[in-house]
């Protein structure tokens, strides 16, 4: 029984630490592993939290404990309850979706080209506390996102997956749609104007157009004006 006692202590010390500050991603896993070994884990296919029923496969916005401003995203891939003494501790397993802020910042091109509302499915799986769920989000394609008429803070888009360990996008950046005479990765956060003749989309800055005037002017790009 000695092994169990050790595990029991692991769980209690992790839960105690959770009260004091946030756990790191290894500690969440340690917690679930220790509880699983002790048979304290019950798995479910759905979970009710804060009056809302969550199911496997749903995407959610999550708060990192101790930092309510820092958001992270994930697909729900597992639910369990840890039974510790008289307490039931609901936990979720998520497949992480990476946002702009979590990508390595080395490429200026990416900083310019990636939207605040863009997510990349990663290979990382993590356990977290159920209480970290903020709300469900909707994930659509970049094409659907660009066609959306009203922006909604719970709608995100994706155009690629990102493997964190290999630092690799699929499809690769070279296959992403580019736009304008500057040939930049298309970023729906930016403002574009369309040439009436060749129908190309250009950034306001690259077109030399002021935002206030763009609404009601007939715009022809430099190439079309020359003809
Ligand atoms: Zn441009
Ligand atoms: Zn044109």
Automatic annotation (TrEMBL):
Domain PHD-type: 177-227
Top-level taxon of the source organism: Eukaryota
GO molecular function annotation: zinc ion binding
One Pfam family linked to the record: PHD
Keywords: Metal-binding, Zinc, Zinc-finger
Signal peptide interval: none
InterPro entries in the cross-refs: BAH_sf, Zinc_finger_PHD-type_CS, Znf_FYVE_PHD, Znf_PHD, Znf_PHD-finger, Znf_RING/FYVE/PHD
Species, as recorded: Paramecium tetraurelia
Protein name: PHD-type domain-containing protein
């Amino acid at each position: 029984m000695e092994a169990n006692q050790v595990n029991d202590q692991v769980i209690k010390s992790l839960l105690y630490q959770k009260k004091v500050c946030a756990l790191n991603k290894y500690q969440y896993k340690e917690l679930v592993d220790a509880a699983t070994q002790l048979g304290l884990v019950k798995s479910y296919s759905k979970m009710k939290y804060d009056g809302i029923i969550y199911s496997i496969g749903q995407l959610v916005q999550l708060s990192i404990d101790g930092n309510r401003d820092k958001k992270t995203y994930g697909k729900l891939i597992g639910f369990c309850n840890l039974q510790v003494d008289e307490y039931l501790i609901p936990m979720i397993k998520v497949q992480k979706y990476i946002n702009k802020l979590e990508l390595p910042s080395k490429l200026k091109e990416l900083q310019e080209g990636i939207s605040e509302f863009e997510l990349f499915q990663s290979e990382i799986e993590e356990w977290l506390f159920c209480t970290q769920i903020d709300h469900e989000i909707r994930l659509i394609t970049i094409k659907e996102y660009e066609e959306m008429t009203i922006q909604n803070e719970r709608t995100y888009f994706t155009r690629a997956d990102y493997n964190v360990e290999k630092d690799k996008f699929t499809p690769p950046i070279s296959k992403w749609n580019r736009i304008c005479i500057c040939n930049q990765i298309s970023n729906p956060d930016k403002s574009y104007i369309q040439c009436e003749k060749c129908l190309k989309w250009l950034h306001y800055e690259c077109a030399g157009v002021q935002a206030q005037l763009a609404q009601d002017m007939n715009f022809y790009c430099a190439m079309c004006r020359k003809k």
